[in-house]
Amino acid sequence: TTTTTQPPLVTEGATVVVANANGVNGSAGAMTDELGGAGFTMGSPTNATTGQLESTVIYYDPTADASLAVAESVNRVLGGDAAISQVGTPAPVSGGELEGEVLVLLGNDKAGSTLAQLAPAADDGATTVTAPEVSGGEDDPDDPDAVDPDDDPDA
Length: 155
Fold this sequence. Notes:
Layout: E1 2-5, E2 15-20, H1 27-37, E3 41-42, E4 46-47, E5 57-60, H2 67-77, E6 83-86, E7 102-106, H3 115-118, E8 127-130
Parallel strand pairs: 2-3, 2-4, 2-7, 5-6
Antiparallel strand pairs: 1-8, 5-7
């Protein structure tokens, strides 16, 4: 028996802004659509001032109550391997002003990908527990002492 449990995604309480920090034109807009489709509240896509990043980084505003939980949920749907940090001032986006509470600097590692590609069902951050097989049941062919109910004269 396999039981999979996963905490619910926190998609409300903070606005998520995706910023291009890669070489793929339009990737922040595309990821904004992807995350919006997953239930997150999205701000307008923008550009990062960091230049290109190999790895995606997620920032959160520590003054907003739900921002860390939303940032962690964004990370989970993006595959679970992005660094999460508090955003500094000025924010590393065009204009220096973050128009939300969670900022995704979309690096080359995730640019141009869909959420389905980044977090496939088999690896979505869920905890999977597999129960060991039980041997010795009545019909266990490997157990010489097992009783086959069809052969039991008293049944």
